[in-house]
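Interim report to the steering committee. The following record documents the input for TIR domain-containing protein (446 residues).
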Amino acid sequence: MEVMSHDVFISFKPEDSDCFVRFLYEELCGLGMVGFEYDGKDMEEDMEDPTETLVKGIEGSRSSIVVLSQNYASSHWCLKELTKIIDRMDRDDDTANNNHPVLPVFYEVDPLDVQTLSGSFKRCFDEHEREIAQDLHLEQYSREVQIWKTSIKRIGTMSGIVVIKHSDEVNVIKIIAMEMFDRLGRNFVVPNKYKSLLEMWPRLDKMIKLLDLESNEVRLVGVVGMGGIGKTTIAEVVYDKLSAEFLNNRCFLRIDHNKSLMSLQHQLLSEFLSEKERIKIENEDDGMEMIKNHLSKRKVLIVVDGVNEKTQLEKLVGSPDWFGAKSRVIITTRNRDILRQQHNYEGKMVEYNVSLLSNDGAMELFCKHAFQGGRGPPDENFEHLTEEMVEKVKGNPLALKKIGSYLYGQSEDRWKEALKDDENLVNENLFIEILKMSYEELDGES
């Protein structure tokens, strides 16, 4: 599967619709979509040829929005974008799998003017024709203008959103964003803040499938793995990505030895109830009843991160019937036996066993922390040492980061010492024994 870097590419003429598009971009982001963003004014004024940037943006996006405005067709770059977008859409149609949906937005223009090249669109193309007439050597430009005309007519025939002069733009923007949300489903790309996390896409994809968001049943997913393998990060990414699905009906609980179960129960209820000052929990059993009574009719998303005792689940998310239809509960733990001891979860719980990074992923992450700029080993000697160290750590992300950071800037001799004597790393508080410890916990010791 080709991994896209953005969900939506927006083609627009900044002078006509910059403010509108900025708010649209924010709305898309609010629904969990990642938009390709550039300053269109800078693109046209300061860059000699932004074609490569635009092509990459369109090719790397799963869909496009084309905001057609009064002066859209006057811009060479807008027309180039549109032609590329149409080409991308047709190419995906040929595969019988329309992976690049395109939504035209007719911003204070009549769709018929776009389709027939009338009104402001005729004026813009008349200007292009005059430029050609003034220079008979512009044969390539002449051919390009004909292609642009075809693209404009094509987009004019497509079903889209019409924005008239006195439209409620706030409402229209919400409609456009929800239209793209529906067209793309929930399979959005990984947000920018998680781009540096290696191999996140397949993990996110796996989690979304296990959560089975189309099902009306309450569903629980237990994320199981050794310490430092990335359980919390996976839960955070999924939690962010499902923000539009659950809006304010979600809560991320982090198990902390400094927090009592009653305080966690209070935090959970506080996320969902408006009158927080009225939440009075007498004891843990009282908290359980309050959670069940207040949330049993609500569709909620709850993450309980770092579970290490059976009681924590019993008191916080004791049974699927505590929550309303279509609710989802994500539990991260090093000890899978804790999940299997919850008889109330039978038939409702699925496990996701987080795997170690692949050798390529482990090498990339280690080098990112062990060498300046993450460029990799400076010579053959360090290359062999790097391979040995990555093999020793076995793809644990936290250990790779810790040890890579520790060895950053160290001499070749120091690397060799570290490989010979793991205790050196332990003494530096780098916890290479995290691997052994975590495997033991996975075997059932809590």
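The mean pLDDT is 83. The committee is asked to note this result when reviewing the revised timeline.
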